[in-house]
Write a structure and sequence with these properties.
Helix content: over 70%
Strand content: under 5%
Number of strands: 0
Shape: elongated
């Protein structure tokens, strides 16, 4: 026998909005990370000379900051997701629960 609160939550338009926003945002972030990782691997495979060019007159190559970006960008994107989840998504979730309990 289905729970009436669950039915009210699932029929709430804010619940559909929350699911849509959260899913779309997750796929966008996933796409950004995949492009970043596969782009870096493609550079390694097809343009090693570009990654081997030195920055300025030092010994550090262009590949070093790009490699660091491949590590740091997903960490930053995780922070962005957490900030949005703790703000907008949690607010919507609280509204949905409050409306379902009435």
């Amino acid at each position: 026998m289905p729970d009436p609160i669950v039915e009210r939550i699932q029929s709430n338009p804010k619940y559909a909005e929350l699911k849509t926003k959260r899913t779309r945002f997750g796929w966008i972030l996933t796409f950004v990370v995949l492009v970043l990782y596969y782009g870096f691997i493609a550079l390694i495979a097809f343009d090693k000379e570009l990654l081997a060019k030195p920055l300025g007159s030092g010994i550090t190559t262009i590949g070093i900051p790009i490699g660091i970006a491949v590590i740091l960008v997903p960490i930053i994107l995780t922070g962005i997701y957490v900030a949005r989840a703790n703000g907008e998504f949690d607010r919507l979730n609280a509204e949905i629960i409050k409306e379902a309990q009435q």
